[in-house]
Each structure stands twice: as C-alpha cells, then as structure tokens.
Amino acid sequence: MLAASALTAAVPAISQSNDAELTIRTDQPGATIDPNIYGQFVEHLGRGVYEGIWVGPESPIPNTRGIRNDVVAALRKIKVPVIRWPGGCFADAYHWQDGLGPRDRRPVGINSAWNQSPETNHFGTHEFMDFIEQVGTKPFVSINVGSGSVREADDWMRYMSAPAGSGPAKAREVNGRKEPWNVPFIGVGNENWGCGGNMTVETYAAAFRQYAAFLRNYSGPRANLIAVGSDTDDYDWTEKMMALAMQWRPHPTPLAYNTDRPLMWGLSLHFYTFTGDDWGNKGRNVGFGLPDYAAALKRANFTDELITRHAAIMDKYDPEKKVALAVDEWGAWFDSEKDAPSQLYLESTLRDAVIAGMSLNIFNRHADRVRMANIAQMVNVIQSLVLTRGAKMVVTPTYHVFDLYKVHHGATLLPTELRAADYVQGDIRLPGLDVSASRDAAGKLHLTIVNIDPAKASSIRINLSGGTWRRASGQVLTADRIDTRIRFDAADPFVPKPLPTRLSGRAVIVTVPSKSVSLIEIQ
Ligand code: AHR
User: Fold this and answer.
1) Among the options 43, 119, 191, 347, which is catalytic?
2) Residue 329 annotated among the catalytic residues of the structure
3) Which residue minimizes the CA distance to atom 9 of ligand 1?
4) What is the pLDDT of residues 115-144, one digit of tens each?
5) Which of 287, 371, 276 is CA-nearest to residue 333?
6) Is pTM beyond 0.90 here?
7) 191 assigned to active site
8) Which domains are seen in the chain, by residue range?
9) Of 282, 287, 330, 482, which shows the fewest CB atoms inside 10 Å?
C-alpha cells in the first residue's frame, strides 16, 4: 500500500530546514545570457492562436486589429524576446498563401496535425507580424519543409522581406504592408524526423543544405537559419547534422550564404518534461502525488545532462561555438484532464513553476551554447504563460518565473559552486537546490534559486568572491501545495512576495521556503 504522502499533493505541515552554502564567482564572468533563451512558441493548436491571441476585430473582447489587448499587455511586461510560429507539426503542412488577403475570402482548411479541426486562416502572416509588433518582439518563422517546397519557402521570404517597391513587395503592399518585415530567425522545418516527413538525418541534412542556399532576408541582415535537431537524446542526429550540414561549397561569386559563418545559425533540440519516460502515460497535471512530482523533476533535471552531451558533440565540430543549440520546444507536458476545454490544454500548478525555474537555470548555465529556447506553448497549450477563458485571462505560475528571471536577459553568467542537501523521494535522488547567477550591465548581481524539496526550507549562505556590496533584496514564488493551481475565479496565489535577506560583508543569508522559486538581487 502507498504511504499517505504518496497519495496527496499536500506536504507535511511542519517544514524542516536544510543548510546550504553557495559561492558566486563574481571574479570569473562567463558567457552572455542570450535574451532569446526566454523565447516563446505559438502554434495553431487547440486555443493557442484562435481565442488565445486572435479574437477578430468584431469581438467584444477588447482587441487591437483582432489581437487580444490583455494577452499583449501581459506579454509586453515580461519582455518576450522572440516568438516561434506557426508550429510545430502544424507548420509542416502550412501553406502561407492561404493566410493572405481579405479574411472572409481565405480558404477554410483542415488542421491535419491537430484533430483535423477547421483552420480559418484568419491568423496569417500579416496578423502574426502585427502581433509581433504589438508585443514588441522578434519573429521566428518556421518554414514548411515537410510538405512544402524550396520555391514556396523562398516565395514566403520574398513576400515578407523584399524591399518596398520591388516586384514581390507589391502583393504585400496590396495586403496592407509597404515596408518589409525583418525576419531574423527562420526555422528550416520542424521535427522532420517525425511529423515533418519521417526523414532520416541524411535526407534532412541534404534538404537543409538546399533550403539554406535560397532562404534569406531580402532587405535586412542575413537571416539566422535554425536546422532541425534532435528529439531528446538522439545524439546520433546531432553528430550527423554537425558533420553534414554546417558547411557549404564556396562559390567565387558573392552568394548570400558564401560567408565565414556556418550554414546553420542554430541546431534545435526538442525536449518535454512529464512524469517518468512514457509518452503514452505522461501523468496527471493536477491532483498528482509526491512520486509523480519527483519523477517529473527528475526528467526536468535531465535537461542538464542532455545539453551537456549534445554540446560536447557540437564542440567536436564547432569548437568556437558558432552554432547555437536552440531548444526551440521545451516545457512540462502532462496528460490533459478529460474535461479540458481544448486540445493539449493544461491547468497550471506550482510544479510548473519549479520546472520552469530549473529549466531556465539550466539554459542560463549553458549560455555559451544555448542561445535560443522557446517554451511550448505561450497561450492555452501545454506549459502556458497565459490562459484564457472567453473574455477572462490569467497569468500562470510559469509566467511569474519568466517575469522574475527577466533580469538575466543579456546579463553575464557567473559561475556558482553549491553545497546543498539532496531531495530524496523513493529511489529518486536529486540536488535539492538549482541555481544560476548573472551580473547585469549596471553591475547588479541576480541569483535565481529553485528549492525543489516539497517539505524542507533551505537556509543558504551566499558567498560573493569579490566586490563591495551594499544591499540585498529578494522575492519568492511559492504556494501551499505542489499542485496548487491557478484559477479564473480566485486571486492569483503565485504573485511573488518579498523574501527577507541579510547582507553581511561579502555574504548574503537567506532562507528559501520549500517548493519555491526565488530571485535575489545584490548591489
Ligand atoms: O508542441 C506540441 C508539438 O510537439 C509540436 O507541434 C511538435 O513539434 C512537437 O512534437
């Protein structure tokens, strides 16, 4: 029989405390943390786009040219650096021309990737770029390699980026946009080892090289091409892509791809966290117990090993680290509840915040190679930052983590040395704390700390290896239970609260509660 603690998400009422010691090597600055690590992903799936972002100009829900004002305002606050669109598997069958012109005349298609639901095409290139501009972010457009063609992809790039007045820009202008859009990131396909065409790595590498010869920004700086990388731990895919798809055959004329940069700006990695390792049984996303909590965190913690191993392979071919590892799909993906209002809709709990905090710390710590990451997905799908129900909107615990962590955007990574007790649940043993630290342009230090232990607080002495410090302050996100969830009809229990800190010379003393995500600022 399972112990009572295994059956309930409640944690023991009396919280014990562990002691920990952390040193931040302020004298050993590392890589710059690329803000794009805090990127987002949105796909035509469930209510991710329709209702979540797009309600149409006639909607009673307040909107600007059909795009929800509440969602835009929430996203602006966390300084979203980049948004990947239109998929995902949806992108592998997307034909961009269907999403142009007067909306009432656009063809209604079938979303072949997701439930065969009707696709109105009301949210197309112009609407996406309007959304990008309203949020104040950058586009990352995923090109259809699976069922499309080089010509279709090149035509899309011409449509979006050709200079005003040029031939391809005329159609764009007729549809309301004179100036070209800058398209800094192009995803050359999506999961072409699976929903994007069942390709072998050799087939995909050849396709990538071909597309790379034609895809470009016609009026802006050279576009950054992101090649399809591994599914989780497919290290062979990474090895072969690095061997086969980085280089091109130089040509004596100044062709766009004929530079000293590798063909790919980045190689992607897709990795999802769920309970255990079985895609067929991803575990409940609400009402789970401690064994499920620990199993999910074990998988989230595996992100570190995964990146270390993929990066080691990349180092062999690219020791100067010119090619980024782009984790362009990641997140906590549990089984949706039976009464979920739309496909892949997940309630959001404290566990999601813990997973987000750990994952973002891990990406920060690998900032020398990880220069892009896109959480799946921004609104109403998988590990969302924003949930909507009709006219209502709430932000999730994951949103608050992104808000706390935005201090790391563009900051300099500082190495950390940590001594902390393990968290043990059954046969799962994990480091009890997970941290990353950085220094921003103004010289302030920021430390983000996840205490994964569901029952024990942690008293931490933080040593600073150099510098003179005058002030420290903290904020913490936690809740009563590991599965406390956000609700549309109640106050948000996840809003971060002040966390007492004490500065003493070159040390800061803080106690972080159990199951929490904290931000410490030191100046
Ligand atoms: O994010 C949901 C799906 O997960 C994406 O469409 C696909 O790329 C991945 O398998």
Assistant:
1) 191
2) yes
3) 88
4) 999 999 999 999 999 999 999 999 999 999
5) 276
6) yes
7) yes
8) 4-27+415-522 (2.60.40.1180), 35-410 (3.20.20.80)
9) 287
